[in-house]
Design brief:
The chain is mainly alpha-helical. The chain is built from four helices and no strands.
């Protein structure tokens, strides 16, 4: 469904919020985090926390 909508109305590449939403709807969480980081570092940190809990992203933390 998103591909149909984005074909008719593509996201604005100059609008970071638009790109975050497009990446999330396209099931590209890492890409969404990259755009979120460009918009606000706290936003990307909190999104990463949620995505990690939901197991949408890999989190390799070196505990040493």
């Amino acid at each position: 469904m998103f591909s149909q909508v984005s074909a008719d109305l593509p996201p604005d590449p100059t609008d970071k919020e638009d790109m975050i939403h497009a990446a999330l709807f396209s099931e590209q969480p890492e890409e969404a985090l990259r755009h979120a980081l460009q918009l606000d570092s706290w936003l990307s940190a909190h999104l990463a926390d949620f995505m990690d809990t939901m197991r949408l992203i890999e989190s390799d933390v070196d505990t040493e």
